[in-house]
């Protein structure tokens, strides 16, 4: 199994509030995370770095490969991290109100879970088909689901960046967590909305279809987002299941 990621400040922002990481636990399970911070002139990058670093560090100490047990661990861990971010924000005035989205996958054997809070996304590319496997927790997505906006109107919606769930803002944490079976030659993409607001799903699928290294594909996605305007920080994390299932 191969991992590659790239993150970029984009063309409009002064600092990068995205954070990304890949970790292994004591039994060889893999965790990959992307977080997109928000709030304050430096609060967003603090919240996103805290989320990725703390969850990753705690995962490295775990010893299980049982995916159902890992789900329970992750839900508890996200609640703990939510409390840590809230506590940190109370200690420093310039961090007040900080929070972060988070999207994560944990891969163990032939199964993987995907968890998300906010509008950072996970995609599965399988059999030449790209599928979004997370649901955006955002105002614009709620309006589309209620039929108040068409997908075309949603793309131009002025409050597109308003999210309805995040880590570190409220006391309650509500992550969506789903378990999937892995298949040979699967690709997973975890990304911040700085990519998906600039690059369409067909364009993403086109990059994944190209004959180039995984790192080059991640870099190409960043370049495309910047070429389209680069209005936000951009992060793309790619995972490729090469060969037989269970191969590293």
TrEMBL record:
Keyword Transmembrane helix: no
SUPFAM superfamilies: PP2C-like
Database matches in InterPro entries: PP2C, PPM-type-like_dom_sf, PPM-type_phosphatase-like_dom
This protein's record includes keyword Ubl conjugation: no
SMART domains: PP2C_SIG, PP2Cc
Top-level lineage group: Bacteria
PANTHER family named in the record: PROTEIN PHOSPHATASE
Name the record gives this protein: protein-serine/threonine phosphatase
Organism: Lacticaseibacillus brantae DSM 23927
């Amino acid at each position: 199994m191969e991992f590659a990621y790239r993150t970029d400040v984009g063309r409009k922002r002064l600092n990068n509030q995205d954070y990304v990481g890949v970790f292994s636990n004591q039994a060889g399970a893999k965790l990959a995370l992307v977080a997109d911070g928000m709030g304050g002139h430096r609060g967003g990058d603090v919240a996103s770095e805290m989320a990725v670093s703390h969850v990753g560090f705690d995962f490295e100490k775990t010893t299980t490969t049982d995916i159902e047990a890992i789900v329970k661990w992750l839900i508890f861990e996200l609640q703990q991290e939510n409390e840590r971010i809230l506590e940190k924000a109370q200690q420093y005035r310039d961090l007040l109100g900080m929070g972060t989205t988070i999207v994560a996958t944990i891969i163990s054997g032939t199964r993987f879970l995907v968890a998300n809070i906010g509008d950072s996304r996970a995609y599965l590319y399988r059999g030449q088909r790209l599928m979004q496997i997370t649901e955006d927790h955002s105002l614009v997505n709620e309006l589309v689901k209620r039929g108040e906006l068409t997908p075309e109107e949603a793309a131009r919606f002025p409050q597109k960046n308003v999210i309805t769930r995040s880590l570190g803002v409220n006391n309650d944490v509500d992550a969506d967590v789903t378990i999937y079976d892995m298949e040979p030659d699967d690709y997973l993409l975890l990304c911040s909305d700085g990519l998906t607001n600039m690059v369409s799903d067909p364009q993403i699928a086109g990059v994944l279809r190209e004959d180039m290294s995984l790192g080059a594909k991640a870099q190409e996605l960043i370049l495309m987002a910047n070429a389209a305007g680069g209005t936000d920080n951009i992060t793309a994390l790619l995972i490729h299941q090469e060969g037989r299932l269970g191969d590293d």
